[in-house]
């Protein structure tokens, strides 16, 4: 299997090379040259596999320069009972005969990003080994919350790597902040930046583009890399759980051979739903992929009209991990749907950069609409959905998954479709306890309580357990106290690397 850039200037690279590089130097994203197929024999064979065995079988088709043993090691180091609190890793929960929730948050930080960030460090160090790389890899992350902690948990004490996470001092929830500043590990640094997420993100970008920094690191035998979802090594592991969900449904006899399913995904950067698209292209029968957005509904408009327009107000919502106006991974979808037309994709992406807007041709738009259905809902509807689903099914949704559930209801109402449907649940409700509590707990109980008291309250009221990654967080020692200005970030990095 060889990989190529969606802007056309890089071709014929191995998976180890593209995982190490992260983003293509021509500004594009790396994609596989073709999409490997799962035959009916593959599917029947995999049906009785464990999650780990399914992951190995699927990863082998993409990572052809890795040895079997290397893939098994990566998978077993990531998906085990020390990191995940459920044996199925990504369990399916039935709400009724046709609606299933796939819980993707049983990893150490209680958000779906663990599914990829638990394995990415192992894919990356193995890629270094395969390509003969001896430099230490330094991962720089700017985070608005979930990615930072998931990356820290994944890279903690992984040999020949260091990780530095910057978060906005005033931009993350109390639980998210505590999760990060209590992070253990010899190779980790967490620092608060005075400012908002954009300040932290721009600071990190500047460090990446700083020539002097690059040379200093080179002299120290170090190389910077990124852990965000433009890296193929983060997208690939996400394909696995959609195939696993389909196989679980088949194994339980809920669907028959060849029967199609819908998949609903609460979407931000378009990484998670793109993995579902790839699962479909590999051979999972899919009726519709339903793309759910919050008030930042740039993707809803794109899927309905073929026009992508980021020139709009940025809305701060109670599903913050989906507050995004540029969905980077859409570029990979367009590259697939245009039959790998790098010229067209480059043109649209240039338009986006220049004017914040592009419009795809009518054939591409038709192809998008054949596969995707899209909708959005605001914060009020999100809270109402959490409350309704709790009353109807005694199932507690987090704010992101509630957006997906709401949009799925809109879809059923509009289409009357009763196809078996999997809704991707991207976070534990305890991770966003404040908002979730306001949907299900009486006001008298909640008033004057801080975020940690709300956690306990929510647990006792619903009878659910606080997941290990969040439990007793306020009692853990604070290990990271660095606070810096935006223009001090480079110094912070250099000091840590000395
Ligand atoms: C990151 C995230 C999303 C959005 O996923 P994308 O791959 O960026 O579309 C949704 N929900 C939660 C909880 C997240 O952390």
Question: Beta-strand level of the residues, as a percent range?
Answer: 5-15%
CATH topology description: Rossmann fold
Helix content: 40-55%
Give the ligands present: pyridoxal-5'-phosphate
CATH class (first level) name:
Alpha Beta
* Average predicted local confidence, pLDDT: 94
CATH architecture: 3-Layer(aba) Sandwich
> What structural category characterises the helix and strand content?
alpha/beta
Overall geometry comes to globular
Rg on CA atoms, Å: 22 Å
Low-confidence stretches: none
* Count of β-strands: 15
Structure, explained:
By secondary structure, the chain is of the alpha/beta class. The protein has a single domain (82-112, 133-498), classed as Rossmann fold, CATH 3.40.50. Helix content is 46%, strand content 14%. Bound molecules: pyridoxal-5'-phosphate. Residues 111-113, 146, 229, 266-272, 321-322, 400, 426-427 line the site of pyridoxal-5'-phosphate. Pyridoxal-5'-phosphate is lined by residues 111-113, 146, 229, 266-272, 321-322, 400, 426-427. Keywords: Pyridoxal phosphate.
Summarize the structure.
Residues 90-335 form the Tryptophan synthase beta chain-like PALP domain. It is built from 22 helices and 15 strands. It is of the alpha/beta class.
Name the features.
46% helix, Threonine synthase, EC 4.2.3.1, 22 helices, 6-stranded mixed β-sheet, alpha/beta, 5-stranded parallel β-sheet, binds pyridoxal-5'-phosphate, Thr_synth_N_sf, 498 residues, Rossmann fold
């Amino acid at each position: 299997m060889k990989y190529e850039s969606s802007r056309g200037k890089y071709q014929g690279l191995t998976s180890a090379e593209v995982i190490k590089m992260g983003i293509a130097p021509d500004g594009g994203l790396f994609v596989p040259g073709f999409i490997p197929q799962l035959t009916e024999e593959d599917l029947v064979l995999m049906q009785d596999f464990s999650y780990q065995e399914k992951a190995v079988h699927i990863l082998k088709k993409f990572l052809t320069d890795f040895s079997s043993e290397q893939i098994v090691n990566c998978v077993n180091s990531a998906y085990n009972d020390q990191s995940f609190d459920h044996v199925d890793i990504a369990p399916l929960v039935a709400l009724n005969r046709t609606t299933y929730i796939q819980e993707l948050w049983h990893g150490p930080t209680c958000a779906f990003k663990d599914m990829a960030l638990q394995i990415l460090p192992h894919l990356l160090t193995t890629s270094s080994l395969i390509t003969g790389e001896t430099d230490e890899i330094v991962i720089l992350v700017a985070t608005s919350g979930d990615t930072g902690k998931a990356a820290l948990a994944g890279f903690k004490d992984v040999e020949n790597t260091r990780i530095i996470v910057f978060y906005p001092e005033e931009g993350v929830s109390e639980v998210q902040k505590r999760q990060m500043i209590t992070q253990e590990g010899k190779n980790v640094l967490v620092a608060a930046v005075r400012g908002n997420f954009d300040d932290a993100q721009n600071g990190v970008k500047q460090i990446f583009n700083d020539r002097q920094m690059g040379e200093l690191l080179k002299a120290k035998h170090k190389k910077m890399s990124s852990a965000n979802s433009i890296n193929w090594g983060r997208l690939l592991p996400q394909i696995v759980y959609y195939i696993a969900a389909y196989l679980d449904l088949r194994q339980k006899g809920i669907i028959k051979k060849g029967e199609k399913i819908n998949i609903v995904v609460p979407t931000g950067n378009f990484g998670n739903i793109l993995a579902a698209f790839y699962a479909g292209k590999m051979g999972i029968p899919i009726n519709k992929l339903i793309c759910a957005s919050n008030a930042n509904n740039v993707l809803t408009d794109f899927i309905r009209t073929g026009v992508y327009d980021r020139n709009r107000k940025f809305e701060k919502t109670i599903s913050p991990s989906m507050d995004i106006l540029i969905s980077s991974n859409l570029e990979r979808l367009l590259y697939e749907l245009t039959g790998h037309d790098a010229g067209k994709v480059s043109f649209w992406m240039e338009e986006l950069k220049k004017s914040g807007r592009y419009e795809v041709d009518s054939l591409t738009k038709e192809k998008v609409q054949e596969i995707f259905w899209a909708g959005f809902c605001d914060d009020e509807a999100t809270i109402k959905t959490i409350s309704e689903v709790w009353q109807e099914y005694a199932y507690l949704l987090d704010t992101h998954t509630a957006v997906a559930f709401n949009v799925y209801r809109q879809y059923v109402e509009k289409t009357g479709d009763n196809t078996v449907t999997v809704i991707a649940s991207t976070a534990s409700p305890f991770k966003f306890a404040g908002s979730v509590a306001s949907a299900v707990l009486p006001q008298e109980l909640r008033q004057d309580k801080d975020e940690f008291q709300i956690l306990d309250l929510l647990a006792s009221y619903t009878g659910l357990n606080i997941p290990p990654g969040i439990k007793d967080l306020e009692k853990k020692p604070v290990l990271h106290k660095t606070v810096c200005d935006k223009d001090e970030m480079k110094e912070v990095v250099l000091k840590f690397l000395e």
